[in-house]
Amino acid sequence: MWLPAMFLIFGVLLGLMTNITVPDAYANYLSIAVLAALDTLFGGIRAQAERKFDQKIFVTGFFFNISLAAFLAFLGVQLGIDLYLAAIFAFGVRLFHNIAMIRRIYIEKWEKRKIKQEK
Amino acid sequence: MKKVRGLQRKNKLLIGLVCLCTGFMLAIQFQSNQTPQERDTRDLWEIRTQLQQEQRQQQQLYQEISQVKNVLDEYEAQSEPAQMKALNQSIQELEIKAGMTEKSGPGVIIKIDQLFMDIEGPQSSPVLTPDLLHHLINELNQFGASDLAIEGQRMIDITPIRLVNDRIYVNNHPLPGLPVEIYVLANNAERLIDYIEVSNSNDYFAIENLKISTEESSQIELPAYDGILNLQGINVNAQYEVGDE
Question: The organism sits in which domain of life (chain A) (predicted)?
């Protein structure tokens, strides 16, 4: 559990220290990619909690979601439709859903443990 | 058992890498959204000119304040009839300034007429456009004209020149056809004529088959503006140019 957290912090530090910025024109793509990454991450945590985590699905989901989101944003720009909103909506809904599921699972686990202790 | 542990380690490493990517992207996104601080990038000269400008403005404002104060002192110091007199005088001064009175003096008569009378082909009369007139009037003001009248219509600060139904309206009165005469008061009429003769307006008018001819006159009478001064909707237009801020 500590390893991913450490890597996350390390990644944030690396990003802050390299001082890279994205031009305004590409800000949409990056924002959607970040959302996709977060979605995949929480999806992975949920799968882990449900004990059906699959590494292949996780890794492919990560890259596939990000590229799909970026492609959707690109297509939207070409067509003049704000298609990235669709991606943001989908990822946002899934993010909330995943976090809600994680919360439920952990509450259930905690309650089970409590009942066991009382017994 | 060992194999499972190896897989788990690989798992963790992969998740870690994904986390690393996510963190990296998050940081970049965060940084990109951080608006850079606005810095004062003016150099010494720009600051100096700005300072000078502000000082000039300050000077001007002080001057205006002292003038107005003088007028106020006059009002207060005088008896009632004298006050009325001073007030009337102020009103007269303001009316002269606004172009509400007749004015005469030396100046230039500008005549706008057809350039070529006998152009072959289908006969067409040249058309004066408001743009051309605007351009000419701007140039005249720039060259030192103090007061203007177009075909008996006194130009004041808010005189509109509009195109309505293919006719030019000045002060909401239609201009007659060519030739059009513009009366210009100027302290230095000769110089104004020189300026007009070399100005761009000649070329612009020539493109439309129009000609500007000038004539100096020692005594020109301009009519008063006879419309209603409607100052509603007039605001101070504070314009900022690029580099002002």
Answer: Bacteria
B11 neighbourhood in chain A, CB within 8 Å:
53, 55
The encoded tokens of residue B28 equal 């970049």
Residues of B in contact with A95 (CB under 8 A): none
Chain A: give the shortest CA distance to residue B40, in Å.
Answer: 22
B101-140 confidence digits (pLDDT tens): 888 888 888 888 887 766 666 666 777 888 888 888 888 8
Q: How confident is the model at residue B57 (pLDDT cuts 50, 70, 90)?
A: very high
Q: What does the domain layout of chain A look like in residue ranges?
A: 27-118
Closest residue by Cα to residue B144 from B181, B171, B107 = B107
State how far the Cα of B219 lies from the Cα of B153, in Å rounded to an integer.
18
Q: Which residue from B152, B138, B142 is spatially nearest to B109, judged by alpha carbons?
A: B152
Which among B158, B165, B220, B160 is positioned nearest to B189, based on CA atoms? B220
Q: How far, in Å, CA of A106 to CA of B54, rounded?
A: 67
Domain co-membership, B151 together with B186: yes
Contact assignment for B23 to A14 by CB distance below 8 Å: yes
Domain boundary among B33, B68, B98: B98
Task: Tell if the pTM clears 0.80, that is, is over it.
Answer: no
Angle at CA B197, nearest 5°, toward B195 and B200?
85
- Could you give the CA distance from residue A12 to residue B21 in angstroms, rounded to a whole number? 9
Whether residue B113 is found in the same domain as residue B82: no
Interface of B with A (CB under 8 A): 10-33
Q: What does the pLDDT average to over A2-23?
A: 83
Q: What is the DSSP letter of B172?
A: T
- Which pLDDT does position A49 carry in this prediction? 82
